[in-house]
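User: Okay, second chain of the day. Same drill as before: sequence in, structure tokens out.
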Amino acid sequence: MKSSKRKREKRFKKSLIIYSIVLAILSLIFLIYIFITLLSYENHQVDNFLLKTVNELSEDDLKTYLNDNNLSTDLLSKYKTITEQKDLTIKHLEDETYEVYNGNRLLFTIDTKITDSKTKLGLFTYQIREITKITPNLNRGLFYYDVLVPSNFEVYVDSQKIEEYSESTEFLDLDFMYYNESMPTLVKYEINNLDSEKEITIKDYNGNVVDVNEENFVYQNKDYFIKTSTLEEAKNYINIDFDVMKVAEDWHLFLTKDLSGERYGFYNIANYLIEGTNMYQMAYNWAHNVDITFTSKHTLGNPIWPVERLENFVIFGPDAFACEVYLEKDMIVAGKHQTDIMHDKLYFIKDNGNWKLINIQAIEEN
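Assistant: Same drill. Structure tokens below.
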């Protein structure tokens, strides 16, 4: 009796062990299946698929691309190193066409075709793609840079000065400064067909090395101009050999019909201006229209300007700058003191070797 019971227990334990082993094997198979499914799902995501395609390009493929673009096969090892990077970025261009970038450098344009769609575990649906065409972007060479700086800056590649730029545009909201060549433009240097990464050095119009931000092989800053708080500081960078405050004061007097000289002082104020500019025409119109005659009768206090400030200089180059002027003019109207405030930004350029006022913009008070 006891022997029979022991046999049954033994068979039960054996069956339990076998069942546990079978269950463990089935669980392992299921987990492996899930892992393979997830891996297949990830590998067929378009970014991963294209990155894997580029990473696995053969040396023969890369050598062909170099030869087709008249580039030396000495660059092959460097080309291979670039294509094997894991941090390349993928951008969708259109339809099933994609671009592969190394930073801002376009490496390849890849055309694909969807050949099938699969769903696994009822949850994971992905598309099967094949490559129809790979177009390398080597028209600028394997290594190249873009540099955006003012036209009065100099750009050096490994100590060699670059002489020609590819594009030139006016600085935004400063179109009035481009009466002549005094104001620099924003220029773009396209430095192409280099055999390796290079050291880019940028110097300002005084020959000083400038720290310019580099991001993804593009060198540029949001603001290239020198800024100082005072006139004295500004003179360390630019030759301001005239009385800026006198120009502001005369303009302030001109607007209230207080400037001496013929035609309400127009011919005196015109000495600061360039004939044919908007600034000149504005002053001419003010002095020759009837509006100036409606200026309130008044006298000027003593001192005329109890408060004067000349500050916040922006130096665009050796022949162009701007600054802020704040004046409080004491005007006595009907026996009462009134304050006439001028808070403007004045812009100057050199014309025929002389400093001229090219624009005035009111500064909005906060």
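The chain has a mean pLDDT of 88.

User: Thanks, on to the next one.
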